[in-house]
Amino acid sequence: MADFEVPELKEEIAPPPVREGVTGHLKPFVADAKFQEPLGYPGELVDNWQEVAIAKMGELLGKYRSLRVFLDICVKCGACTDKCHYFLGTTDGNNMPVARQDLLRRVYRRYFTFAGKYFPKLVGAVDLTEEVLDQWYSYYHQCSQCRRCSVFCPYGIDTAEISMAAREIMDSVGKGQKYCNEIIGKVIKIGNNLGLPQPALADTLEGLEEEVKMDTGRDVRFPLDEKGAEVLLVTPSADFFAEPHVDGLIGYAKVFHQAGISWTLSSYASEAANFGMFIGSYENMRKLALRIREAALELGVKRIVFGECGHAWRVAYAFLNTLAGPFDFLDPKYPVPQHICEVTYDLIKRGALKLDPSANDHRRVTFHDSCNVARATRMGDFPGGQFVIPREILKSVCNHFYDMPADTIYDATFCCGGGGGLLTDDLIELRVKGALPRMEALKHVVEEYGVTHLVAICAICKSQFSKVLPYYGFEMDQILSLHQLVGDALVFEAQA
Amino acid sequence: MSVLTVVFALIFYLATAILVAGVGYRIWLYARTPAPLKIPVTPAPLTPAGVALRLGKEVVLFASLFRSNKWTWLFGWVFHFALLLVLLRHLRYFQEPVWGWVALIQPFGKYAAFAMVAGLAGLWARRFLVDRVRYISAPSDHLMLALLLAIALSGLSMKYFFHTDIVALKAFFLGLMRFDLQPLPADPMLIVHLSLVALLMVIFPFSKLLHAPGLFFAPTRNQIDNPREKRHLVPWAAQLEAGERSASTTS
Ligand code: SF4
Ligand code: SF4
């Protein structure tokens, strides 16, 4: 099935012996001019790229405290070395978080510190050569910016911050990544990652209305661009037709329907994903975020609710207010924005939903904490709500719920292997290997409790799992959207 | 006044100046650099008191390291707290009269020196024995441990083998503080010990020892989790916004 070796699933997640450079050859396609230029980046590697890169690094050091502090303070204690799923899956030493940081740190030291200028050998400082740039391109695209390393670092050093900065530097010299930059371009031009224009979207939604009518006999609506709706739902565009995402979208629609909340999608802001974050570009991230503000103003909604997506929820929860706020024109009774899980959970608590968990009796489920939700956001009004709320929802809609081992969930969760702008076929080997720790944890609950399905609240996780599950002997449809289970458990009386 | 005394007086004035100015400059840089986005690693505290507690647990207990790796935690924690005790014990060379609690901890400080050596040895052993740690170690990482170990061992050897005149030594340091030079005892082991300490002070602001002040500046740990409640906007981001607005009104 694959032209590379799929790692074997073990009983325990254990650090492998370090090997050097074994996945140095893995790198995503480079963006050409037509994907670079619309984002404000040079179309190809500029002649004086060293100079430009160092200048950019200097600029970022002045703009981001995280970068400035993290490049200085690592003590090489090694605590993070066995925490990255890409290291565990590939065994490549450069995929140890500290080694990944060092690729940039060595250059930082050479050009920006006293020790590196005068004693480069002693502190391992190096010149920025073509070889180094190639290594950056490889290994900063083998980081899903999942922040697991940061949880375990005694100083909270977040490799995601470093890899975002590195990608921003590479973009600025003309060596961007095709997958991310092409997608950002599509959102700027059309409004979503898929490049799905308004008529096609309207069509798709109509199809969904018919499908749900057949299933439930109810007129559950999927409104688009409806002015005056209470809620603007912003959801990853994969929800419009990828499997199992679309079943999640149907779930949200059913929840809104039963709760009697009027809602709408927007064709202008038909994308929750914001790949501007992955490439570390404040400007591009902001451009995409502003579309959501404009859509909310245009449609005159009172609330903004985000669908199931991990990094999108990070940009929404943690950055939206900064990038596109203030949102003083929305109803102050609700946080801005809200997660669909917060909405559903509140409704369940208030008894506003009629649920029959036995509808999911044929499923025994476990929950995958998506990294961005787990380690970069919150749900509800207490720390850790992002772990509790989805699980509480799951338990109210399904009778058989089992957690994976404690060191692989909550804030210690393992990435699906496809986050951070790596969900592209040119990185499939990396994606499969990076999924190893999660697959090992899944295998554990499958064997122990007979778990049949993995439930997630992230579009990237869902796509990634449907692709990699089969490599490890599972079925591609063993991954489900949380709101699919909600939708299936909702009881609709026959329409009068 | 001997040449030795004058040279060491100058060395210590210089080393202190470099340490204070260097670390001060770094802290100023960290404090001045904005953190444009809310990036606390969650679950994160919702209040300033919560953040203080979170940082306190990192500083006192090395909480994240404990979760991460028990051996590194053990060696690291033992080393740092032994070092703290040893440093406090050395306070007696800089005060007259000696504060009560400094006198009180003297006997513990003695054992702490051994603990410090043990912790350092453990940390250094990991750099050789654990392949992942070996992979990420640069020469400077080994040398830093060597330096700390040499300081500890030279200090210990004076305690047990090469006694020095600590009364004169104390007079020397008190003199330094009062700008009134007093002779420094010319014992070789003391010279070694003091030279290494001065070297460490000079290296501090240019090395990974910056983790000490840096810890307090990590946005992943020191930010409050309230992005929805309170809009977070740094000056350069506000400027970007303002620039756009004026561009759109003039166009
Ligand atoms: S855990 Fe932190 S300080 Fe330790 S090696 Fe990793 S990044 Fe550096
Ligand atoms: S952020 Fe995640 S993917 Fe990147 S180095 Fe850290 S653990 Fe690995």
Tell me the number of structural domains of chain B.
Answer: 1
**What oligomeric assembly is this protein in?**
heterodimer
Low-confidence stretches of chain B: none
Tell me the major beta sheet of chain B: none
User: What is the N-to-C order of secondary-structure elements of chain A (H for helix, E for strand)?
Assistant: HHHHHHHHHHHHEHEHEHEHEHHHHEHEH
Q: What's the CATH architecture name of chain B?
A: Up-down Bundle
- Share of helix among residues of chain A? 40-55%
Structural class of chain A: mainly alpha
Give the mean pLDDT of chain A: 96
Strand content of the residues of chain B, in percent? under 5%
* Strand line-up across the major sheet of chain A: 2-1-3-4
Compounds present? iron/sulfur cluster
Helical element count of chain A?
A: 22
Instruction: State the shape of chain B.
Output: globular
Number of E-type strands of chain A: 7
Helix content of chain B: over 70%
Q: Specify the number of helices of chain B.
A: 12
Please tell me how large the radius of gyration of chain A is: 23 Å
**Sheet with most strands of chain A:** 4 strands, parallel
What overall form of chain A do the CA principal axes indicate?
Answer: globular
- How many E-type strands of chain B? 0
Commentary on this structure:
The complex is a heterodimer of chains A (496) and B (251). Chain A is mainly α and 496 residues long. In chain A, the strands form 2 sheets. In chain A, strands 2-1-3-4 form a 4-stranded parallel beta sheet. In chain A, strands 5-6-7 form a 3-stranded parallel beta sheet, sandwiched between helices. Chain A is globular and about 80 Å long. Chain A starts with 32 loop residues before the first helix and ends in a 7-residue tail after the last helix. Chain B is an all-alpha fold and 251 residues long. Chain B has one domain: Transmembrane di-heme cytochromes, Chain C (Fumarate Reductase Cytochrome B subunit, Up-down Bundle), CATH 1.20.950. Chain B is 72% helix and 0% strand. Chain B is built from 12 helices and no strands. In chain B, helix 1 runs parallel beside helix 9, helix 4 packs antiparallel against helix 5 and helix 7 runs antiparallel to helix 9. The interface between A and B is large, with 72 and 61 residues. Bound molecules: iron/sulfur cluster (2 copies). One iron/sulfur cluster binds next to helix 5, helix 9 and helix 10 of chain A.
